[in-house]
Amino acid sequence: MSRAETNTIMKRILLAASTFALLGAAVACSENATGTPSASGGGSTTATEMPPPPPLPTGGGTAPTTTDSEGSSGPLAGKSPCALLSPAELTQIGISAAGKESKQGIVRQCRWSQGDSQALGIVDTAGLANITGATEKAPVPTVGRHQAVRWTAGTGNTCSVSLELTSTARVDAQVVATDASSACPKAMKLAQLVEPKLP
Questions:
Q1: Which residues, other chains included, contact 168 with Cβ-Cβ below 8 Å and sequence gap of 6+?
Q2: Could you report the per-residue pLDDT of 93-136, keeping only the tens digit for each?
Q3: Which residues have a Cβ under 8 Å from the Cβ of 122 and sit 6 or more positions away?
Q4: Can you list the domains of the chain with their CATH numbers?
Q5: Could you tell me where the beta strands, DSSP code E, fall in the chain?
Q6: What is the value of pTM for the model shown?
Q7: What does the pLDDT look like over 124-168, one tens digit per residue?
Q8: How many CA atoms lie within 13 A of 49 on its CB side?
């Protein structure tokens, strides 16, 4: 065998050995790889990716509703006390300021502060027999179509005239006056003004 043939054979052996070595290294890397395999065709998905949340349920259920904790069911339930008298009617008792609506216990109240403080209160769950906090209480002649009670509280400069709507509902006309002697006459005038507007 010539020297040239021997060199050719040796080169082929070395080339084959190198090829096997590269293949072995590639297999080893593939077996020890910690990455997550992915499909070659589309976008990859990693093992740590969270699935999307399920859709919210839909269908025939109805949303829960809330009710008034006091169970208001009087004839003026839902009526704003500030809407009982118009601005034109309020001028008859010297009020031009806007009323301020609030809730004091079971009383839904609108108060006008202009000189004396005057207020109308709607009570949906208590009638004339259930007036509390009065230092003095007395029946008065019927106001229009409504039974009425006059009562005072505190130092005497606060007077209210309550008009019966039902046995369990009423409207209070209240005045807090700087002159105690004028409190009850003004409260009666306020009650007489609002009475025709009441059921």
A1: 74, 125, 126, 127, 130
A2: 999 989 999 999 999 999 999 889 999 999 999 999 999 888 99
A3: 74, 76, 79, 81, 84, 107, 108, 109, 171
A4: 81-197 (3.40.1000)
A5: 100-104, 107-114, 116-123, 136-143, 146-153, 158-166, 169-176
A6: 0.63
A7: 999 999 998 889 999 999 999 999 999 998 878 999 999 999 999
A8: 8
